[in-house]
Specification:
By secondary structure, the protein is α/β, with parallel strands linked by helices. Helix content is about 35%, strand content about 15%. The protein has 14 helices and twelve strands. The strands form two sheets. It has a six-stranded parallel beta sheet with strand order 3-2-1-4-5-6, sandwiched between helices. The longest helix is centred in the C-terminal third of the chain and has 17 residues. The radius of gyration is 21 Å and the shape is globular.
């Protein structure tokens, strides 16, 4: 059955998991809200990543859940109570499928290859069938589900995040504690030298040489990582002569505020790279094991991905089964990254309007 969009009043988007997944759901949220400006567009996220959408104007409500039974039951009851007309599952796993099922929505949209496909009464075969090409970005994979049921998505909106005043204020306080002043910081590049897997994490000593190169180009370096990744930041600091400010205690909205002020982002393929892209910050992203087509920056800002080609790419990335030591990320040279930085900065200077 077709969706009677004129009668739709409430829509839920289910998008569990990570930072990058959440950022790359924003093009779909933007497309939905502009198509249904009078309807409520809500999203279900995991609690730790939900602050990314603070202030985001294409969502009316963020419903959160944690990875425990009681929290999921509470979220399921709330979803059931809202009586959604349409639910999109942008995730596809069994937990997200249960949330779709319990919603009771008349229209439940997902892919044919999802776990428990019978949950969905609108099933798309693949993003390739919708976009008419074999390889597609994660954002396009999500947008295809909307387009499949009649939401206009052909312009493929870029990702977007909002910088809140509260995040800017709290970030400034953390700069004060670090002995710096955020609003008066000289032009800087934001580095993210950590990653989820070793097959995606370029050596911190290489990032140190990049920091040296950035200093020669008049850019200060600010580096971020999570608290449990502190050793990566320490290795970076100990391997460079550049003056670096490092943070391992920034909340996601604070990282958003910081990335919005950066002249350039340089880092591994990660959620932080997608945050930078959503803020139109020019970027250079270093890829190892992961799929470059699927996870490259989804942005209108100048950007490049740097990689070394291997026949086994892409792979799941949990370990390097082919070589043992992940030469895909290890063999990326500092020279190739610095050359990409120069090209991106030149493009930014040539088109200053590329970044609003």
């Amino acid at each position: 059955m077709d969706v009677d969009w004129k009668s739709v009043r409430r829509v839920l988007v289910v998008r569990l998991r990570s930072i990058g997944d959440t950022v790359l759901s924003t093009p779909s949220l933007i497309a939905l809200k502009r198509f249904l400006p009078e309807a409520d567009v809500d999203i279900l996220l995991e609690d730790w990543v939900a602050p990314l959408l603070d202030g985001f104007d294409s969502v009316d409500r963020v419903i959160v859940t944690r990875d425990d039974f009681r929290s999921r039951l509470k979220a399921a009851r709330e979803i059931r109570r809202q009586k959604y007309d349409v639910v999109f599952n942008l995730h596809g796993g069994p937990t997200s499928g249960l949330f779709v099922r319990v919603s009771g929505a008349d229209h439940r949209v997902g892919y044919e290859n999802y776990r428990w496909p019978s949950i969905y009464n609108h099933r798309l075969s693949s993003p390739a069938d919708f976009w008419k090409r074999d390889e597609n970005h994660s954002a396009e994979q999500q947008l295809a589900l909307l387009g499949f049921v009649g939401v206009p998505v052909e312009d493929r909106p870029p990702s977007r995040l909002i910088v809140t005043s509260s995040a800017s204020t709290s970030l400034a306080k953390k700069f004060d504690l670090a002995g710096a002043t955020f609003n008066e910081t000289a032009p800087f590049a934001l580095l993210h030298p950590a990653a989820a897997f070793e097959t995606k994490q370029w050596d911190a000593r290489n990032f140190a040489r990049v920091a040296d190169a950035l200093r020669e180009r008049g850019l200060k370096t600010i580096a971020v990582a999570a608290k449990d990744e502190r050793q990566v930041l320490d290795a970076l600091e100990h391997s460079t002569a550049a003056d670096i400010i490092t943070f391992d205690n920034l909340a996601l909205p604070e990282i958003t505020a910081l990335a919005s002020k950066a002249e350039l982002f340089v880092g591994n393929d990660s959620g932080i790279a997608h945050i930078a892209g959503a803020l139109n910050t020019p970027s250079v992203v270093i890829f190892g094991s992961s799929n470059r087509v699927h996870w490259r920056p989804w942005t209108a800002a100048p950007n490049e991905v740097v990689f070394e080609s291997f026949h086994c790419q892409p792979c799941p990335g949990f370990e390097c089964r082919e070589f043992g030591d992940a030469p895909c990320i290890r063999n990326v040279t500092v020279e190739s990254v610095v050359a990409a930085i120069d090209r991106v900065l030149a493009q930014k200077r040539a088109d200053p309007k590329a970044r609003p």
